């Protein structure tokens, strides 16, 4: 890649993130080296350190940003859904599916490169992930308390739902037989059919 013309700090940092996302997704974190990253961005390898402390910090920062965006956008979707439990649960599910369709590379890296983080960084990402899972568990608990849902085990049900809903990032491709809205609807009904009180 040619050097970024008229590059400045913010633009170069963003280009580094985009290139890292592409390379880690394609080759894996362990195989990506900083020389390749610099070449992809169009800067000298030594210049990378003006923008990132190192490879490990870059991965940790990318994962943290991914989880924070997911958490914040989920809260916005829930707030927009209104007070009714089933509306909020549908919003959570729909947002999760759409987010994971639109950010397949980020999701893949967040799920499969967690093991590459140092223990302190891993603990921070796991805490954010736990907060997200707890949000779904809270909705399920509320639904059971209201008599709208029938759930034998909140924790297991939340994990099973998230595994099913997240799986879309492994097979979804734009331009397929079903559009995003149809896939969101299908996944929402699949998830709710297993827990809705009959």
Mean pLDDT: 92
Name the CATH architecture of the largest domain.
Answer: Orthogonal Bundle
What does the overall shape look like?
Answer: elongated
Overall domain count: 2
Strand content: under 5%
What CATH first level of the largest domain would be assigned? Answer: Mainly Alpha
Largest sheet: none
Number of strands: 0
Describe the model.
With 198 residues, the protein is mainly alpha-helical. The protein has 2 domains: 1-52, Orthogonal Bundle (Arc Repressor Mutant, subunit A), CATH 1.10.10; 54-197, Tetracycline Repressor, domain 2 (Orthogonal Bundle). Helices cover 70% and strands 0% of the residues. Helix 6 (119-145) packs across helix 7 (154-166). The termini are far apart. The model is unreliable at 1-6 (pLDDT under 50).
Characteristics:
198 residues; mainly alpha; Arc Repressor Mutant, subunit A; Tetracycline Repressor, domain 2; 9 helices; disordered N terminus; Homeodomain-like_sf; transcription regulation
Provide the fold topology:
Layout: H1 9-27, H2 34-41, H3 55-81, H4 85-102, H5 104-112, H6 119-145, H7 154-166, H8 168-171, H9 180-193
GO molecular function: DNA-binding transcription factor activity; transcription cis-regulatory region binding
InterPro entries: Homeodomain-like_sf (IPR009057), HTH-type_TetR-like_transc_reg (IPR050109), HTH_TetR (IPR001647), KstR2_TetR_C (IPR041490), Tet_transcr_reg_TetR-rel_C_sf (IPR036271)
Protein name: TetR/AcrR family transcriptional regulator
């Amino acid at each position: 890649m040619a050097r970024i013309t008229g590059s400045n700090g913010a633009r170069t940092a963003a280009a580094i993130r985009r290139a890292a996302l592409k390379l880690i997704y394609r080759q894996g974190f362990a195989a990506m080296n900083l020389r390749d990253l610099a070449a992809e961005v169009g800067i000298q390898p030594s210049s990378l350190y003006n923008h990132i402390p190192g490879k490990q910090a870059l991965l940790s920062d990318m994962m943290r940003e991914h989880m924070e965006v997911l958490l914040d956008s989920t809260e916005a979707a829930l707030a927009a859904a209104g007070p009714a439990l089933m509306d909020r649960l549908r919003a959570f599910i729909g947002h999760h599916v759409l987010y994971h369709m639109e950010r397949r590379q980020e999701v893949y890296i967040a799920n499969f490169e967690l093991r590459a983080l140092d223990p302190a960084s891993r603990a921070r990402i796991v805490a954010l992930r736990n907060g997200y899972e707890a949000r779904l568990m809270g909705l399920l608990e509320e639904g059971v308390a209201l008599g709208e849902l029938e759930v034998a085990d909140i924790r297991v049900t939340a994990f099973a739902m998230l595994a099913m809903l997240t799986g879309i990032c492994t097979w979804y491709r734009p331009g397929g037989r079903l559009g995003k809205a149809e896939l969101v609807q299908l996944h929402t009904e699949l998830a709710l059919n297993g827990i809705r009180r009959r």
